[in-house]
Amino acid sequence: MLYAILCYHDEDVVNGWTKAQDDAVLAKRRLVTDKLAAAGRHGPAARLMPTTTAVTLRLGAEPVVLDGPFAETKEQLLGFYVMEFASLEEAIATAREIGRDETGTLEIRPLHLFVPGTLPA
Amino acid sequence: MTSTAWIGELLTAARPQVVGALLRSFRDLDQAEEAFQEASLRALKHWPLNGPPRDAAAWLIMVGRNATIDGMRRDSRLQPLPAEEIISDLDDAEAALTDRLDGSAYSDDVLRLLFTCCHPDLPATQQIALALRIVSGLSVAEIARAFLVGEAAMEQRITRAKRRIADAQMPFETPGAVERSERLGIVAAMIYLLFNEGYSASGGTAHIRIALCDEAIRLARLLLRLFVAEPEIMGLLALLLLQHARTPARLDDAGAIVLLEAQDRTAWDHGMIAEGHALVQKALRHRCPGPYQLQAAIAGVHAHANRAEDTDWAEIDRIYTLLERVQPSPVVTLNRAVAVAKLRGPAAALDMIEGLAVPLAGYFHFHGVNGALLRQLGRGREARAAFGRAIALAHTPAEAAHIRQHLDLLARDVRSS
User: Fold this and answer.
1) Domains in chain A, start-ordered, CATH in brackets?
2) For A66-95, how does the pLDDT look when each residue is reduced to its tens digit (9 = 90+)?
3) What is the DSSP letter of B271?
4) In chain A, whose CA is at the least distance from the CA of B286?
5) Chain A residues closer than 8 Å to B222 by CB
6) For B229, which of A13, A53, A67 is closest by C-beta distance?
């Protein structure tokens, strides 16, 4: 079975870490993740940019683009895509196509870090 | 990480919201600060035992408020003391409070707190010192070090600034849209000044003052989190990130300034640059360009070039032309002249800045640019005079050393001709 492990924290706190603190946390985590990567059991991993970089697309008959991250508590995180775009405009246009004739929300957030992983296709 | 370090992190992160909310309750800065101190002490006592509350800010606001009100009652001896357990046992009350503290109240609280520090009667350096003390929670000693003054002098400066604010009438009603946008503009300017205070520093003190840049970025992030749809705040944060990304390459090992075109671009912080680019793109979607967005866009063009010679000077010239329209200023024209020199040569640039000699007579960079252009045109004597004026206006040893490098080059020109 494939599992996703989702990371939550107060971004004010994490953004406040010094580079040394940040590096130490990543190094500590890598002690675990490197073992899975070596065994071919580590899929793609990403670190998202802060929520201030996010744009949210509320789907519906006429989708609306809003600044900021997804902030509703009545909907749940159900999945994600990682795709490459030349611009934010292109990302928004693709999200519109993906969510055409649907309800719900798509949040678009650039990645700070991306690890492709070692999981066989 | 020690066992209580996480509490310190949570307290620092929650501070602007909590002090802002307490200021709304008590309408007095000192009292709001004291209430925050008291709530922090109780957090240090209770959180290690019970774990962090679901919403640290809501917990601190409630505890701070209750503790202060108890203190007032105790002082006036009107009612018996409530039991400590009532204050400490907040689990249920906290959930209700979190619901009531909707985002918009928080936003206006934090904005009011920052705005309070920007009182127009206070000189810029006092506004910054006050914001660092009250909003960021830096100690007086830390602020004094950053401003290179003694602790007693800084203490006095902050006390005086606070007294001035207490005397002024601060409006506490929820601001209207126009007023909110005015406040945002003033607060953004203060954050930008705070950043520049750290950015323009150099030499042996640089490592201390980088903390000012970090703090400015933290405040800009905070502001954007609260006012998510403001393109100028996106632009401000982007500008700070794109400039701060160059910090590792701005000074050489001896502490001398390394010019943008000579910097080791691999040393730039590319994570910050990527975040800056993302924010500029987001801001430009609003099609409402302001000074911070345009300056960020210019910094973005520089950051985009892997080598100095790849810089798109035509694009920089174009954005500076827009900036001259949005915010006309001799400094902007001077900066555009640098792009024009790259595009059309030093003579065209010199023509542009001729008219700036009077308004920028006391501006270090004007004389530096003027000298460099004159030198390129082979007008050595005039160049030397311009560099001489620049040295006299240098704020830091590194700035003066940089002009001396120009003078050395000039001397070499003379010898080789």
Assistant:
1) 11-115 (3.30.70)
2) 999 998 778 999 999 999 999 999 999 999
3) H
4) A67
5) 12
6) A67
